[in-house]
Amino acid sequence: MSGLDPSLPRTVDSLVRGFIDRGTALGAQAFVAHRGRTVLDEAWGTTHDGRPVTVSTRFPVFSACKPVTATAFHIAAQRGLVAYRDPVAKVIPEFAQHGKDEVTWHHVLLHRAGVSDSSLQLIRAETFADWDAGIAAICAMPPESAPGAVVMYHPLTGSALLAEAVRRTDGRSFVDFCRDEIFAPLGMQRATWGLPAGLEAEATLAVAGAPEHEDLFRRFNSPQGLNAVLPGAGLYCRARDLGRFYRAWCSDGGGVVSPETVRLATTMHDRLGDRSGTGYGFHVGAERKDPTFRRGNLASERSFGHNGYANSTAWCDPETQVSAVFLFNLAPSEAGDRRFNLLSDAVHRAVRA
How far apart are CA 169 and CA 322, in angstroms? Predict the structure, then answer.
């Protein structure tokens, strides 16, 4: 089994079934690859409306899609269409409103652009049912902090700016660019931005298992939310699709991005914890003091990936050449949610066996 403990599928199966039995999961998918070979691709439970989840079911992955959007930007950068240290306003002139002219793409990738929208709450899922209106709303925002001064997570705004840079410099829509340059080459056959009409029977929606998730999921599951293109939170796909994405990144870019881009994007540009921080589009490193750390307490400091709200995690550990994706459609209370930590550490233990 490619050097992994052959009991890994049974271990993951037992963990996920336990979550379902205890009511902290409804439906789930898992994908694990080691040294380029798939060693686990499984599904459990039911969709939001009671259908069986299969390995073909599309899940909303929320912010776990941010590295996909960053990859589109990296491809544009490789082609000389954009530069990391250039001002955003060089590509999107109207972004310079309210003194934002010194914000660079470097700031955007590190969540230091000052437009997190954390206090204003101007940008919501339904905002991007009209793409141009969504970009205009971000450009019109006054800055919440000086360029580069403060790390404040940009849930929807930063990735939208990256996507608009790709659209303006390449000429294709962001959706078409991702289809042609990322999804098709990597075989991400069921990945879509939003959930286009007609695909409802192939997908599960997000289910709130705790009151703190109800408003967000109501917005994402609304017709406007499902039709929106949200580069920071709106990808629907299978665990297999995100797994193929990380398998490529774990293999020097898989021909989609260059090895040099892999090194740049997965270098820790900003330290946020004792051992973890941010790269260009990825969370990087390991944080062994946090029992809810989604890449697991056994992750190496070279590991990188991204979480998706309370529903998903996807990561790669170049040190052991293992990548993993875990998707759930039910979000229990965020406090003490150790599902991903337990699953990720099961994978780390198996690869070290």
Answer: 34
